[in-house]
Amino acid sequence: MQRPFGTSQMVSEALIARCQREEPKAQYELYRLLHGLMMSVCTRYERNEQDAVAGMNQGFLKVLTNLDKRRAEVPFELWVRRIMINTMIDTYRKNKERKAQETMETSVDESPAVEVNDYLRQMESEAFAQLLDRVPDMSRKVFNLFIVDGFSHAEIGDMLGISTGTSKWHVSHARHVLQRCIAQLAGKCAAKTAYQ
Question: Using the 8-state DSSP alphabet, how is residue 109 labeled?
Fold first, then answer.
């Protein structure tokens, strides 16, 4: 049977059963197996690494306490991923009043037309993650939910307590910021190549 979204079974049903019996060694093994998956989700929603780790640990606790509620037809890793996303969104909601809306720290000038597509082909995912850090916090979260995680604007609106139109605006704004940053970087790369 082919697993959706290219996921492969990392966690055996036997290990899940041992975790349901609250065996500490099994819980640690599960944590080790899922750490990369959980951390990759959490760091997409939280810039601060300590907060991302705290969210990951909070989400893992939810995984352990809700193992008996998981539907067998849902692949385990996708179920865990969804819990991590929901945990990070819940954390965001709780901290929304406390944190001031971030603004883009670096000014990005309009660049002349450059070969942005050439630059994108060479760009590594880590470099893209650094560019995504330039996007204001709320727009970055909405962009991740829509583009990376595949949620609809209506679902995002429900999760974050915003309208569908506001969700669409945040995705558009994030794309615009990313396009300007990429164009600026592509222009710098083209200038370096011209000098060599």
Answer: P
pLDDT along the chain (196 residues), means of 10: 46 91 94 92 88 92 93 90 91 68 40 47 66 87 86 88 90 88 73 56
User: Could you say which architecture CATH assigns to the domain 116-195?
Assistant: Orthogonal Bundle (1.10)
Unique residue bearing structure tokens 């880590």: 126
Model pTM score: 0.58
Residue type (1 letter), 32: R
User: Token pair of 177, please?
Assistant: 């910021």
Give the separation between CA 38 and CA 59, rounded to whole angstroms.
8
Fold classified for 4-95: Rna Polymerase Sigma Factor; Chain: A (1.10.1740)
Closest CA to 52 of 65, 38, 34, 32: 38
Residue 84 contacts residue 43 (beta carbons within 8 Å): no
